[in-house]
Amino acid sequence: MSLAQFREAEAERIRHFQSTNIRDVEAESLMLRAYEKDVVSHRLLPHVIKEWRTPSFEEFSPRTYWSLLNAFTTVLGERQTSNPQQFASLTIRLQDLLSQAAGVRQDEAIPTLTA
């Protein structure tokens, strides 16, 4: 996949997340699955739940997959500086989990670049 194709696939995934609504019960189920898949620890899970229920940023108040993704990344954000490799791994796994649930085609879920 070229850089241009990667950018377009990523932009499409984001648009899909932004336009796909999710009910609280589905979001809570995905939070639990993220915990079971070690994306978030038992210490961070309550913070993700709180961020979902009362977002820190107004733009994430719509109940969409985009808002759910941002509830996770807001909580995981500290890892971005303290352990960037772990943050990247966690967000890739999280995006895969959410992409599957949101119905994003698997070949478009997490685009990869080729040389």
* H/I helix tally: 6
Question: What is the overall shape?
Answer: globular
Low-confidence region ranges? none
The class by helix and strand makeup works out as: mainly alpha
Query: First CA to last CA: what distance?
Result: 8 Å
Number of strands: 0
Order of helices and strands: HHHHHH
The profile of the biggest β sheet is:
none
Q: Can you give the mean pLDDT? A: 90
Give the helix level as a range of percent: 55-70%
Structure characterization notes:
It is a single chain. The chain has 115 residues and is an all-alpha fold. Helices cover 70% and strands 0% of the residues. The chain is built from six helices and no strands. The protein is globular and about 40 Å long. The mean pLDDT is 90.
Question: What features would you highlight for this structure?
Answer:
115 residues, mainly alpha, 6 helices, 70% helix, globular
In short:
This protein is mainly α. It has helices at residues 3-19, 24-36, 45-53, 65-82, 84-102, 106-109.
Topology:
Blueprint: H1 3-19, H2 24-36, H3 45-53, H4 65-82, H5 84-102, H6 106-109
